[in-house]
């Protein structure tokens, strides 16, 4: 009878020692899930903006500069509208001139980029601070996404 009572104490001690690790793993999984889902939503917005900009009637533009300006303007307008539909925590992204043209190996590319800079001050999911041990889970300093397409 006495040995059985000691065994219950061992199980309780194991539970007390392992429970914080199990909770930490669940919390870390939830925080990373929210962070990666936010990055996915941002990536989807820039992908859609690039795709939307390429649906232009090229025959309506005689000069390549006019076509370039129209593509860039359409991409920035689409991206601003798509960012407005994101969750409230992601709506303060700077979309001014987020889409621009760049030359890559002689090919003109449309590039749209979003950067969530204030991740440390305004995280999507809060990290726990353990003083000298640091923050848990470790999170990125910023979230950035981009999409490119040749036109």
Describe this protein's structure.
Residues 9-49 form the TadE-like domain. Keywords: Membrane, Transmembrane, Transmembrane helix. This protein has 151 residues and is of the alpha+beta class. The protein has one domain. The chain is built from two helices and five strands, in the order ααβββββ. The chain has helices spanning 2-53, 64-84; strands spanning 99-104, 107-116, 128-129, 135-136, 143-150. The strands form two sheets. A three-stranded antiparallel sheet has the order 1-2-5. A two-stranded antiparallel ribbon has the order 3-4. Helix 1 (2-53) runs antiparallel to helix 2. The longest helix is centred in the first third of the chain and has 52 residues, at 2-53.
Lateral strand order in the biggest sheet: 1-2-5
The topology string of helices and strands comes to HHEEEEE
Unreliable runs: none
Compute the CA-based radius of gyration.
24 Å
Assess the beta-strand content as a share of residues: 15-25%
Compute the average pLDDT: 87
State the distance separating the first and last CA atoms.
81 Å
Q: Structural class given helices, strands, pairing?
A: alpha+beta
Global geometry: rod-shaped
Helix content: 40-55%
What is the number of E strands? 5
**Number of structural domains:** 1
Main beta sheet strand tally, sense and closure: 3 strands, antiparallel
* Tally of separate helices: 2
């Amino acid at each position: 009878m006495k040995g059985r009572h000691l065994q219950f104490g061992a199980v309780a001690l194991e539970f007390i020692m392992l429970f914080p690790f199990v909770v930490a793993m669940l919390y870390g999984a939830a925080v990373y899930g929210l962070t990666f889902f936010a990055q996915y939503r941002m990536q989807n917005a820039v992908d859609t903006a690039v795709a939307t900009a390429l649906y232009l009637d090229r025959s309506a533009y005689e000069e390549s500069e006019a076509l370039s300006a129209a593509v860039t303007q359409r991409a920035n307008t689409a991206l601003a509208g798509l960012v407005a539909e994101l969750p409230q925590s992601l709506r303060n992204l700077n979309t001014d001139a987020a889409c621009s043209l760049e030359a890559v190996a002689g090919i003109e590319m449309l590039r749209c980029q979003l950067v969530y800079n204030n991740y440390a001050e305004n995280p999507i999911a809060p990290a726990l601070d353990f003083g000298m041990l640091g923050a848990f889970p470790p999170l990125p300093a910023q979230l950035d996404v981009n999409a490119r397409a040749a036109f």
